[in-house]
Amino acid sequence: MIKDMSSIAREFFKLPESERLKMYSDDPSKTTRLSTSFNVRTEKLSNWRDFLRLRCYPLEDYVQEWPNNPPSFREQVGEYCTSVRGLKPELTYGLPGHTDCNLITVLLQDDVPGLQVLRNGKWVAVNPIPNTFIVNIGDMMQVISNDKYKSVLHRAVVNCNSERISIPTFYCPSPDAVIGPAKDLISHDQPAMYRNFTYAEYFEKFWNRGLAN
């Protein structure tokens, strides 16, 4: 299944540009969209990447929006999205992560190195291990834990010899979910480090500020 998912992702990005552009949008509110860089509306320096973002839960609500080319795309990606939920990400809340705006990210990457995380002021390579996932904590976990767990900056370094495919599955709160420090983690000695806010409010600010910030 992992090999099939990596293969179908590579097939999609090798489709003719005219076919891929059928899915293009720079509107972050769209549930299915192809785009490039991060936020082309605001950024002055673009990131060297293209991405296809798919809303996948509940699967039956969104799968008809997905590309139907390659022909097996919906079937294979749907199987992957369903299976990856079986990893029980709630059991990995204690792992260190990087700055995604969501709660937890389950990342599948191919065998081409490129992912790095910032540790002790230095960029450290996260080299791929075949058939494994990387589970990262996002910004919402930092808020809920009242800074007990920190988001860690990450980046992807371009490989001059090979293209690189990565497939992240983002676990996000609902847009109207109110996010704030857990009450059990607030005390006289450890006051709340964040005010309460909705996930939609945070996502809008995250999107507008761009990855470079």
UniProtKB/TrEMBL annotation:
Gene Ontology MF terms: L-ascorbic acid binding; metal ion binding; oxidoreductase activity
Keywords: Iron, Metal-binding, Oxidoreductase, Vitamin C
Annotated Fe2OG dioxygenase domain residues: 67-173
Xref: Pfam families: 2OG-FeII_Oxy, DIOX_N
Keyword hit for Cell division: no
Signal peptide span: none
Similarity annotation: Belongs to the iron/ascorbate-dependent oxidoreductase family.
Protein name in the entry: Fe2OG dioxygenase domain-containing protein
Gene source species: Prunus armeniaca
